[in-house]
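Could someone model magnesium ion with this protein?
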Amino acid sequence: MAIIVQKYGGTSVANVDRIRSVAARVKTHWQRGDKMVVVVSARSGVTNELIGRARALSPFPDEREMDMLLAVGEQETIALLSMALHALGVPACSRTGAQAGIRTDAIHTRARIANVTGGDIAERLAEGKVVIVAGFQGVTENNEITTLGRGGSDLTAIAVAAAIKADLCQIYTDVDGVYTADPRVVLNARKLPEIAYDEMLELASSGSKVMQSRSVEFAQKYNVPFEVRSSFNNQPGTLVKANATSMEDAVVSGAALDRSQTRVTVADIPDNAAAVAGIFDALGEAGLSVDMIIKNLGTSGRANLTFSVNTDQYEQTERVVGAVLRRLGSGTVRSAGQVAKLSVVGVGMISHPGVAGTLFGALASVGVNCDLITTSEIKIAVAIDPTKADAALRAVHDAFNMGTTTP
Ligand code: ASP
Ligand code: MG
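Reply:
Sure, complex below.
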């Protein structure tokens, strides 16, 4: 008997048939005597549909109302899954984020979890009930509904697993686990049996859509190992934990593409640290993260900055930077077009030199150039032409022999 938190994403609960099969899987565990907490997302497409309606009514919908709206998606699923379990003779009850004691700050649409009380989850588990928790949502100390940012149901699952000291946390999704690269683009991509939090984090923030990166950060901080696996089969997935045993001699564990980056150019600002700090502080305060920053000297003591942001945060970035520039009394901000970010990630990079050479060699072999570059101890990322991104990813995957197992 174990305490298990399972999280099912949007495609796993997309319709009543899928919800029924999730219920059957949960029942199997419950019959063995496991104590089950199930976190669910909205049915796939629902959150986007709700956002679409909001935008149709207002270009910048009020964020508090946005949360009120978006929380609806997950609430539908908890009720339906609960009913599906009842139909299979399993006692189950649903809980909203607020009822499960997911307390957050008041930054609407991307709230951070402050603490998780768990509400009455422990009592209900002790009665033998399955507890179903709405992912993605929380509540402020003033009882305002918040959401945790896109993909936030993963975060709910990890946070609940930490709070109730679960023995196992499983993230069920529509892929079999974490691959060396997106298998839809790279046909010989390989499923990794294990991966370290740090690597997963870099992959998640590099556009590998498997999981929301904030949830991996949270798992690392509270040391919650979790498994990413498919709800469409019974294969074991990828275990994400502190120290994964990487493949021997694997320099790079994975490569990822983020196709939704916008290059932002801020021109003609005063060339001093205070001006640059003013811009990035304001972006940070607005919860906007920037990546791949370059500063160039302009003419007559002026400077230019180029950086990338998520495309869906571009408009807000432009407004926030615009306000700083007005205070500074100079400068312009504009979009310099879409870029794709290609990242290679691996703890093996720490001990193997020459990664940059191999990467640029692979890009050159398919005629891809890059300007913005960023590195960390375990990652190199480059901004490239989005129309050449797939070819670049395949070339890089081959260059690091990621598709073939070492003997
Ligand atoms: N329904 C939310 C979204 O689509 C949260 C999630 O699925 O994790 O972003
Ligand atoms: Mg998701």
